[in-house]
Amino acid sequence: MNTSTRVNKRPDTRRRVASVLLALSASAALAVPGTAVADEPSPATAPVTAPVPPISWGACPPGRPPYPDPSPKAQCGTVKVPLDWSKPQGPKIGIFVARQRATDPARRIGVLMSNPGGPGDLGADDALYADDPLEGYDPAMLQRFDMVGFDPRGVGRSQVAECDETIIDSIPARPRDAAGFERMRALNGRLADSCLRRTGPLAAHMDGESVARDMDAIRVALGERRISFLGHSYGTFIGERYARLFPRSLRALALDSAMDPDRPNAERYLTDGSVTVNNALKRLAAWCEKDPACALQGQDLTAVTDSLFARADAGTLREPGPTGPTRTPVDADRLSEFLTYALGDWNPEPTARQLAALHTGKGEVRWLSGATDIASRIVLCRDYDFRIRDYAEYRAIRERVARAAPHVRHNAQSLDTILACQGWTVPPRPQPARAAGGLPPVLVVNATHDLATPLPGARRMERSFPEATLFTMDVVGHWLYRRGASEEAMRVIDTYLVDPKG
Fold it and tell me: Is 25 within 8 Å of 17 (Cβ atoms)?
């Protein structure tokens, strides 16, 4: 997943990551002539829905500056879905959908639907810019598939969720005591309540299961019996939810940079992410031993980092300056944040140079930071149960995680996500039961050092399916389906999508 942070974002300004999620969609319908019918839902999880009319396709809106206009081949439309899927005859909302038709109709396989994660990224952009020569799909894929993307409910052109964002600046980023922890929870609750006031009931129905049901409604509106799906980051969670609810509607399921489908608690989520950052630091140290470009060559880089944390704990670590240390202190949390984002970007030479600047006090550090944005909070705090009982439990978790990841203390991105959900007044939604029906073989793809969606979660994703393959690349990175960096993974995914059974 990539929540709304600067860690490991795909360098594609239109088809952003993030580090992911959304679930499975519509349900059975009464058949009417000329109208597709949604797949029969599991009685335990899904109500019967009304028929979904075909999409009325038209011209797409112009690009939002600084982005260019969409491809002239793109078509756009809207699908009306229930705001609350437990009340299929209740109020409706519109889901913005975009499509590019297969360029070789005679060899067309079907629909490839996608989601870029976030949660909160504009999924329609995948289709709007599908034929972009630098950031789009391979032309061979464009020949075989209709590329379909959609902006999830509450996002972009499907109606944006609104909250009182002025509250965010008052929320303690890292509570230092029980009073700070309770203040954080109270302010998170106020923020959640403001979302309900300003957005309305939709703010309580932006969870992954609802999005997955929207996705199946889109399938129905397209007139397709089955779809192929490619999910990135949090989009893998949506793919897993779709498979859980609508197994018979899937032709192929490719999951790139996979979320943990088992709804881990706060400690496991933070531990997996933090150990991954710790391992990335060890990888940097191994590079430093061999490469003369390392500013700390000849020194034990992990020992240097340990000494920086000791100084931060003692209150003696300062930001470096051009001629020596400044008067600005650097605490341990800020140091963990620096390591999370610097290692996540994986550019060894400048990262080592900045660690050397912190060590000597002379030089410059590029301080990167992230924050869990509104859409991510609304979705993640509904789909995962990260609730922590009190400050004592929080401290105990932090101490255990620091022992598991001693050279970095914690993954700042993961911790931001967990703390954003403390006190959230819309409680986590139960996990849906699995519907009956066979699934195709599933492909899961992950970097061995993915700081946003760590490898242990990808392994659990693989095990969650009756038949699945996990393909890994021994790299530090996130979102492997991209040109110019991890094209091997792109080829593996494309080959699978064309022929899931090999």
Answer: no
